[in-house]
Design a protein that fits this description.
The complex is a heterodimer of chains A (about 170) and B (about 150). Chain A has one helix at about 10-45; strands at about 50-55, 65-75, 75-90, 95-100, 110, 120, 125-130, 145-150, 150-155, 155-160. By secondary structure, chain A is of the alpha+beta class. In chain A, strand 6 and strand 7 (about 125-130) form a beta hairpin. Chain A starts with 8 loop residues before the first helix and ends in an 8-residue tail after the last strand. With about 150 residues, chain B is an alpha/beta fold. Chain B has a single domain, classed as Rossmann fold (3-Layer(aba) Sandwich). The interface of A and B includes residues 69, 104, 105, 107 and 122 of A. Chain A: The main subunits of the menaquinol:cytochrome c complex are a Rieske-type iron-sulfur protein (QcrA), a cytochrome b (QcrB) and a cytochrome c (QcrC).
Chain lengths: ~170, ~150
């Protein structure tokens, strides 16, 4: 009778326990591995660029206002925020996107506001900036306007996170 | 400047530059006018948020002044707000409201009352809502800039 049993009771139990144990271990390890490599996978997807509706081909050397919005989470409150950029092409044909936030106390500047030719003007305390964003000495702002990193996708302009300007 | 810890700290440092206070004036009606009152609040808050973004460096948005619409002391309470704001150095105090009664009693409040008829925003789409508020706000921007220029000359 014992010869008819090629698998002994002990072996059978060993096999099944290993099998079931293996599944359980895999069930625990898989999510851990996935969490561990997650930052690597995320790095590949978009460099935090937000799409706008501005066609790159329509940009000229006169700054235009570009509004763009995206979802932002503030604690547990998610809302759609709208940001603005002043975008133009410089002498070399490169796209320049300036943040409209005045470096003095954070008002919104506008191009040729209040009839100041070829300048960005801040209505709060009469701050002024050159076209390239450089602050004009003698007016309140102490730093040049921030610049957005730019990208192009399907002919449309994309803007990243504003950075300090070195002009 | 908004009414939060960070902005008010900056305000105290840069007081000389920030000479304008904006007070949202909203009714606290818990009776039959509740919906209207809530709509007014929603509208005024959005409008004020937009203006704050434009003129962050020169104005402080105070906490809303909520009033019980049927109380008699209504105007004197508001005048007290104006008085205290002017005392700490604000040259311009604006009341933003959708209640037309304030417009009639502007003199007594001591502030510049800007009356904006409220629009029920309800289920309006974000983009429509935004452009609606922006259009309203642009006209108010001019009023504020004009007040600033008047005080210079």
């Amino acid at each position: 009778m014992s010869k008819k049993q090629p698998v002994s009771r002990r072996q059978f139990l060993n096999y099944t326990l290993t099998g079931v144990g293996g599944f359980m271990a895999a069930g625990m390890l898989m999510p851990m591995v996935r969490f561990a490599v997650d930052p690597v996978l995320k790095g590949e997807a978009a460099g935090e660029y937000h799409p706008t509706q501005q066609k790159v081909s329509e940009l000229t050397d006169t700054p235009v206002r570009v509004d763009f919005s995206y979802e932002q989470t503030d604690a547990w409150y998610t809302s759609e925020v709208t940001h603005t950029a002043w975008v133009y092409k410089n002498d070399k044909g490169e796209i320049v996107a300036l943040s409209p936030v005045c470096k003095h106390l954070g008002c919104t500047v506008s191009w040729e506001g209040n009839d100041h030719k070829d300048k960005f003007f801040c209505p709060c305390h009469n701050g002024m900036y050159e076209k390239n964003g450089k602050n004009i000495p003698g007016t309140p702002p102490l730093k040049p306007l921030d610049v957005y990193p730019t990208a192009e996708k399907g002919g449309l302009l994309q803007l990243g996170k504003p950075e300090a300007n070195n002009v | 400047m908004n009414w939060n810890g960070k902005d008010t700290a900056l305000f105290l440092q840069q007081k000389e530059y920030i000479d304008t206070a904006i007070v949202p004036v909203v009714p606290a009606d818990f009776g039959s006018g509740m919906i209207g009152a809530a709509e007014q609040y929603e509208f005024i808050q959005l409008l004020v948020t937009f203006l704050e973004k434009q003129f962050k460096g020169r104005l402080l948005v105070t906490p809303p002044h909520a009033y019980l619409p049927d109380r008699d002391e209504l105007v004197s309470d508001a005048a007290e707000w104006t008085g205290r704001l002017k005392k700490v150095g604000f040259k311009h105090v604006f009341f933003f409201t959708s209640d037309s009664r304030w417009r009639e009693r502007e003199q007594e409040t001591g502030a510049a009352v800007i009356w904006v008829p409220s629009v029920p925003l309800g289920d309006m789409e974000e983009s429509v809502k935004y452009s609606l508020i922006e259009n309203q706000a642009k006209q108010i921007v001019n009023i504020i800039v004009q007040k600033w220029q008047e005080s210079v000359s």
